[in-house]
Structure formats: C-alpha cells, structure tokens
Specification:
Layout (H helix, E strand, L loop, with lengths): L1 E11 L4 E10 L3 E5 L6 H8 L7 E6 L2 E3 L3 H5 L2 E5 L10 H8 L8 H11 L12 H13 L5 E5 L7 H14 L6 E5 L3 H7 L2 E6 L2 E7 H7 L1 E5 L6 H5 L3 E5 L2 E6 L2 H8 L4 E3 L3 H11 L5
Parallel strand pairs: 3-8, 3-9, 6-7, 7-8
Antiparallel strand pairs: 1-2, 1-4, 4-5, 9-10, 11-13, 11-14, 12-13
Protein name: ABC-2 type transport system ATP-binding protein
Organism: Paenibacillus eucommiae
Pfam families: ABC_tran
Length: 288
C-alpha cells in the first residue's frame, strides 16, 4: 500500500521545472528522497505539504487528494525541516501551546516524554536553542500528535555526528510500528545508507529512479580501470565518468552489461548512494 501517490506532477518556476514526476511511497518503510541541490527535492516537499500547487498531475496522501483535503491530511503528517519556523521570542512551552491546538490527537504526555529524552526545558526560549536543539523540539512536536507519516526535509543538515546518529536511532525505533512511514529528504546520503528501505532520486527536475535500496545497489556498478581501456563508445556506456592520470571510474546502471564489456580487465565495485548521485549529476543524465 502506498501512503503517497504522485502521478505526472509538473511545477514550473522561472529557472526550474519539476517535469512529469511519478512515484509512490510505501507504508511502513523509510524512503530517502535524494538529489543534488536544485534537483527538485524541496519543490516536491512543498507540493506534499500544500505550500505549492502542481500545474499538472495529481497528488494523493492516505488516499485523499492534496491540496483539496489538506486539513484532514495534515492531521496525520508530522513535518520536520532544517529551517526553524518557530517564534524565536517564545519559550518551548509557549510555542507548544501555539502548535498543539491544531491537532486533535495531540498527546501531552508523549510530548513531555520527548522533551525529557531530548533534555529540553519548557522554560527555554527558542532563540536560545542551538540548531540541534531546535531540531529536537521540531521532532518532539512532529511525533506528539501521533502522525502516521513523517516528512523530513534535510533534517540532519548542519548537525553534529552525535546527534545525527541519535536522530537515526529514534527513526529506527519509530519504524517498529509498521503503520508509520517516513519520507527523508537529504543530500547527506550516508544517513540513508544506514536506515532507508527505498530511495527516490530526482535530478534536474526529473525522476531518475524510485526503487528499493537493495535493488538499486544490485543494479548499479562502479567500474575502475586503466584509461587505455576506454574508447568513445565505452565512455558513452557510462552514466558518468571521472578520468585521472592513473585511471578512470565510471558508473553503469547495468551491472551485467558492464561485466560483459570489461570482463576481468577492470575492477567492479558496488557504489554507494553518494557515488550514484555524484556520477549521475556529473554526467548530466536525468534518467539512468
């Protein structure tokens, strides 16, 4: 079952366009939304949150059309962003009193439990919180109205490694409830190497792929060898390629074809998500 369905969505700006994007987000899993800066991740998040409206195509969340049933849908969504949307002059307690009435399922005991876990005092003013502490407060708010879908927009950007690891552990615990779903938008792909079940990759406003992480890493291969092996046709067989004085690295989306072309003359290595994103962006491909 898909919690989110995006079908043929197009959104145009003066210097950027999200073009005919279609994919689904499965219930009960963590899906990573990746792509270089300017690829379209933030536009997709805005469309999902009703902060922008598509010019073409349809979006449904929990089987309800967005933005037509935005109010009902947002009752079930927890949103966490790397940008603070809180009133800086308020305390945590006062800011919570602004947020909580918007949600029928707000759980005050759960909220206090998260504050204790995150070592946040209700008396502290928002302006005195570090970026990591603001992220913890944002996460506490998102989790305290018992949302079934958590949408996270660059949640680990600028955070120290200790809190990044803590955040990923919290998300792992949350997924023990198989009804919960997380969409995690980031350009820090190492976080997704650890926790993601599915990956959706956008580049230059187009969908590259949306598939299970396991299938993606099985399909793609990083080929390393001597540049003497390359000719024009072989270079064109790669999504992206990097050549140096000591050899080349090239990304292929067809492992069996790469093995046929290069045999034992080159080294075949399983790529990371960062490798896939880097070589795709470098090669200028929108569809791998």
């Amino acid at each position: 079952m898909n919690v989110i369905e995006i079908r043929g969505v197009t959104k145009k700006y003066s210097q950027f366009a999200l073009d005919q994007v279609s994919f689904g987000i499965k219930q009960g899993f963590i899906t990573g939304l990746i792509g270089p800066n300017g690829a379209g991740k933030s536009t997709l998040i805005k469309l999902l949150m009703g902060m922008a409206v598509p010019e073409q195509g349809e979006i449904s969340i929990f089987g309800k059309p967005m933005p037509q049933q935005e109010g009902q849908i947002k009752e079930q969504i927890g949103f966490v962003s790397d940008e603070s949307h809180f009133y800086e002059h308020l305390t945590i307690a006062a800011m919570k009193n602004v947020i909580a009435p918007f949600y029928k399922q707000w759980n005050e005991a759960l909220f206090k439990n998260y504050l204790d876990r995150f070592e946040l005092s209700q008396k502290t003013k928002i302006k005195n919180l570090s970026k990591g502490m603001k992220m913890k407060f944002s996460l506490a708010c998102a989790l305290s109205h018992q949302a079934d879908l958590l949408i996270m927009d660059e949640p680990t950007a600028g955070l120290d490694p200790v809190f990044r690891r803590e955040l990923l552990d919290i998300l792992g615990e949350l997924m023990l409830d198989e009804k919960k779903t997380i969409l995690f938008s980031t350009h820090i792909t190492t976080d997704l190497d650890r926790i993601a079940d599915f990956i959706t990759f956008v580049n230059r406003g187009k969908l590259v792929f949306s598939d299970s992480k396991e299938q993606i890493l099985d399909r793609y291969v990083l080929v390393k060898g001597d540049t003497a092996l390359l000719d024009r046709d072989l270079r064109n067989a790669f999504i992206g390629i990097r050549e140096t004085s000591i050899g080349f690295e090239g990304l292929s989306a067809n492992r069996s074809e790469a093995e046929r072309l290069f045999g034992s003359y080159a080294k075949m290595v399983s790529p990371t998500l960062e490798d896939i994103m880097y070589f795709t962006a470098k090669g200028g491909r929108t569809h791998a």
